[in-house]
Amino acid sequence: MAYSFPEEVLEYVFAFLSSDKDRNAVSLVCKSWYEIERWCRRRVFIGNCYAVSPQIVIRRFPEVRAVKIKGKPHFADFNLVPERWGAYVYPWISAMARSYPWLEEIKLKRMVVTDESLELISKSFKNFKVLMLSSCEGFTTDGLSSIAANCRNLRELDLRESDVEDLSGHWLSHFPDNFTSLVSLNMSCLGSEVSFSALERLVSRCPNLKTLRLNRAVPVEKLASLLRRAPQLVEFGTGAYSTEIRTDIFSNLVGAFSGCKHLKSLSGFWDVVPAYLPAMYCVCSRITSLNLSYATVQSPDLVELISQCPNLKCLWVLDYIEDAGLKALSSYCKDLQELRVFPSDPYSAEPNVSLTEQGLVTVSAGCPKLQSVLYFCRQMSNAALVAIARNRPNLIRFRLCIIEPQAPDYLTLEPLDTGFGAIVEHCKELRRLSLSGLLTDRVFEYIGTHAKKLEMLSIAFAGDSDLGLHYVLSGCESLRKLEIRDCPFGDKALLANAAKLETMRSLWMSSCSVSYGACKLLGQKMPNLNVEVIDERGPPDSRPKTCPVEKLYVYRTVAGPRADKPDFVWTMDEDGALRLS
Amino acid sequence: MEPTLGLLGGFGGGGGRGGGGVGACSTALSCDQTGLNVPNSEKDYMGISKEAELELGLGLSLCSGGGSGVEAKGKGSAWGDYGRILTAKDFPNGFSTGSGRAAAGTKRAAADSVGSAEAGSPSTGVSQVVGWPPIRAYRMNTLVNQAKTSNAEDGEGVDRDEKKENSKKKINHGNDKNDSNIRERDHLGFVKVNMDGLPIGRKVDLKAHTSYETLAQTLEEMFFKHPSRTICGGKEQSIQPFKLLDGSAEFVLTYEDKEGDWMLVGDVPWGMFLSTVKRLRIMKISEANGLAPKFHKRNEKQRARAI
């Protein structure tokens, strides 16, 4: 059979395919396309580090330059996954160190990274450029020293929200004097003070620096000096902003900011003193992204700032903004796409601020491009949700957290089924949804019926029976990730929809009613799933089969049961019964 | 009765053995009870008649010593002793928005399936549920820290301190590492400073100082010389300047250490001071007299430790 194109041509064409979906589709056309494609795939995304082994990835894609790997389930963010659960990156690094000498990029999320891993990275990849550790843990600033000292071509070092053991700020001083390639540095999660002169010199000698997110320890009086050395910055995160206001510092800051003609994104603002905010007014007109979620500043000051940002696309803020501030937002920021409102005092029984469902309704009405919402509040009504749904059918992500579990519609005292039903019915492109409040099985019926593009669903304290879970598993065609806590879902729906689980990345169920017996059965019948029972009370065999497990994590895999389980995790597999780690 | 799997498209064995797939108590869902074999009624995916939906709810209560698993058990024990979520029984104080919930529960029961397995309803117990509300540990740590340090300045509400202390205690981080992170972040340098007689405190960045002298100077400026706009709203002070460290004036500078003891500032090496100080207090000299004996005792302890 004659080929239409030489391999080189096909390879050239494939290079234009950046989406994994497209590349996967191309690989299925025929054997030769599979071969050509696998040799030229440069970027690999592994959504679950246990779904595949490093060896399998390396065998199929020998010339990878960039990997992105995710580890722990999302609920690990809220302390629902015990320590030592897993997601160790070392086996990946060590395998890639042998097989991908030209690796340039490693991006990890929710993984355990050790100093050893960081050192291995720094020494194994000569052209290493990008290290992003998002919500990772297990390493210290010593590991960062290795990276700084050895990665001569490093462009990005981003530690967003990682839990780093901060031994000292000395790591930053390990960047050699001839190191000039830095483009992005995010050290906002670190505690220790770095040597300020080292930081200044680093910033001065890296002309391509576009992103600089400082940590809290950098005081406000030092900011001007940094900004003046990097007027080309596009993204800037301040340190703590709480020094008592002084006119010289203030005017210095104004001068420095006015030199930054390219700034688009601002963050930081821990402990910000409102009097300092006007220093930034000169850049506000270009600002598209503002993270004020650590700024304990009252609504009027927030409004002052926001009203100067007509191009704002993304706002993260505390509920100090209140309904009044959100009203202002909706009138000034017509380009707004993403809004996240975090609670300032989540544990108090009474509201400490005047933020209600009304704020969100107003924004949904006033901001036509709004597509992504994360909103913490204390009261909600079906009417408000219906209004939001009607106002904003273009919503893609809708995550609502009503702080009190199972809070009903505060006006009618009914469940919020109708409200969320309206959301899924009107927002046909919805990909991510988090529910809260009082909810019956009915809401799941709505979701199963309408949410055909939904990929991720988070459920807590909701539902009445297995019907709820069944509606979701049988109706949501695009579902990839389902996470459930404290819901009365048991064995029936799970077992009846076992095959569905193979089409999803993962399912998490904690404090539900799934019995050990059902887990065993699921594990036995579904060899392509790892059915992991997490139970800190001891081996599930020591309790009746009918008793519910504490936590269940089910995910599809081609790598078989994992070998690094801690003593409180059991994989239900074909050998059935006691399979201790 | 072994639970069986219904794969895509419902049950192969329909009304046969254990179509319900419930590994629950033996008295729960059997084929007959769920009407699996009811010929004429409309069946849903599981081959269970719609009428039997009500019974689905009942049957799903799981073991707690192998009882009947029916709603008679009441909300709290619907799941027995295992994997039980907190229920109203755990929160004897009732709720703040309580009345709504009871009514809603009843309405649900009337309108829909029995829902006997409904979750418990924590009241003001939001803080007692692990991982709820769903806020990342990183953000929680920051919030808690900010609450601690900013409280003295805004002087909002007498009981806020207490609430925040309580919430801080109740945050279940699930591991010690996070707790130590809170402590670590404490020593970012900012500590509260209160002066006797002033309701509103200030904050000082200890990391900006390298010795007691500069700290004392800053504090003197803050509390006795500097009348300009301050974080807490600019109260003018008109007290004579003095030296905080030599005990010669009206006030002394004291600090609370990690163990909760109040000590005179200045006796231990600066580095040691930095690692144990929690907050500062400018105390009237009359109050400070009581410190001396305690101080000496603690000093001895410290000296012993230092060895």
Automatic annotation (TrEMBL), chain A:
<dbReference type="InterPro" id="IPR006553">
    <property type="entry name" value="Leu-rich_rpt_Cys-con_subtyp"/>
</dbReference>
<keyword id="KW-0833">Ubl conjugation pathway</keyword>
<dbReference type="GO" id="GO:0010152">
    <property type="term" value="P:pollen maturation"/>
</dbReference>
<dbReference type="Pfam" id="PF18791">
    <property type="entry name" value="Transp_inhibit"/>
</dbReference>
<dbReference type="Pfam" id="PF18511">
    <property type="entry name" value="F-box_5"/>
</dbReference>
<dbReference type="GO" id="GO:0005634">
    <property type="term" value="C:nucleus"/>
</dbReference>
<dbReference type="InterPro" id="IPR001810">
    <property type="entry name" value="F-box_dom"/>
</dbReference>
<protein>
    <recommendedName>
        <fullName>F-box domain-containing protein</fullName>
    </recommendedName>
</protein>
<dbReference type="InterPro" id="IPR036047">
    <property type="entry name" value="F-box-like_dom_sf"/>
</dbReference>
<dbReference type="InterPro" id="IPR032675">
    <property type="entry name" value="LRR_dom_sf"/>
</dbReference>
<feature type="domain" description="F-box">
    <location>
        <begin position="5"/>
        <end position="46"/>
    </location>
</feature>
<dbReference type="GO" id="GO:0009734">
    <property type="term" value="P:auxin-activated signaling pathway"/>
</dbReference>
<dbReference type="GO" id="GO:0010011">
    <property type="term" value="F:auxin binding"/>
</dbReference>
<keyword id="KW-0927">Auxin signaling pathway</keyword>
<dbReference type="InterPro" id="IPR041101">
    <property type="entry name" value="Transp_inhibit"/>
</dbReference>
<dbReference type="GO" id="GO:0031146">
    <property type="term" value="P:SCF-dependent proteasomal ubiquitin-dependent protein catabolic process"/>
</dbReference>
<comment type="pathway">
    <text>Protein modification; protein ubiquitination.</text>
</comment>
<keyword id="KW-0539">Nucleus</keyword>
<dbReference type="InterPro" id="IPR041567">
    <property type="entry name" value="COI1_F-box"/>
</dbReference>
<dbReference type="GO" id="GO:0019005">
    <property type="term" value="C:SCF ubiquitin ligase complex"/>
</dbReference>
<keyword id="KW-0217">Developmental protein</keyword>
TrEMBL record, chain B:
<keyword id="KW-0539">Nucleus</keyword>
<keyword id="KW-0927">Auxin signaling pathway</keyword>
<keyword id="KW-0805">Transcription regulation</keyword>
<feature type="compositionally biased region" description="Basic and acidic residues">
    <location>
        <begin position="173"/>
        <end position="182"/>
    </location>
</feature>
<protein>
    <recommendedName>
        <fullName>Auxin-responsive protein</fullName>
    </recommendedName>
</protein>
<comment type="function">
    <text>Aux/IAA proteins are short-lived transcriptional factors that function as repressors of early auxin response genes at low auxin concentrations.</text>
</comment>
<dbReference type="GO" id="GO:0005634">
    <property type="term" value="C:nucleus"/>
</dbReference>
<dbReference type="InterPro" id="IPR033389">
    <property type="entry name" value="AUX/IAA_dom"/>
</dbReference>
<feature type="domain" description="PB1">
    <location>
        <begin position="188"/>
        <end position="290"/>
    </location>
</feature>
<dbReference type="InterPro" id="IPR003311">
    <property type="entry name" value="AUX_IAA"/>
</dbReference>
<comment type="similarity">
    <text>Belongs to the Aux/IAA family.</text>
</comment>
<dbReference type="GO" id="GO:0009734">
    <property type="term" value="P:auxin-activated signaling pathway"/>
</dbReference>
<dbReference type="GO" id="GO:0006355">
    <property type="term" value="P:regulation of DNA-templated transcription"/>
</dbReference>
<keyword id="KW-0804">Transcription</keyword>
<keyword id="KW-0678">Repressor</keyword>
<dbReference type="InterPro" id="IPR053793">
    <property type="entry name" value="PB1-like"/>
</dbReference>
<feature type="region of interest" description="Disordered">
    <location>
        <begin position="146"/>
        <end position="182"/>
    </location>
</feature>
<comment type="subunit">
    <text>Homodimers and heterodimers.</text>
</comment>
<dbReference type="Pfam" id="PF02309">
    <property type="entry name" value="AUX_IAA"/>
</dbReference>
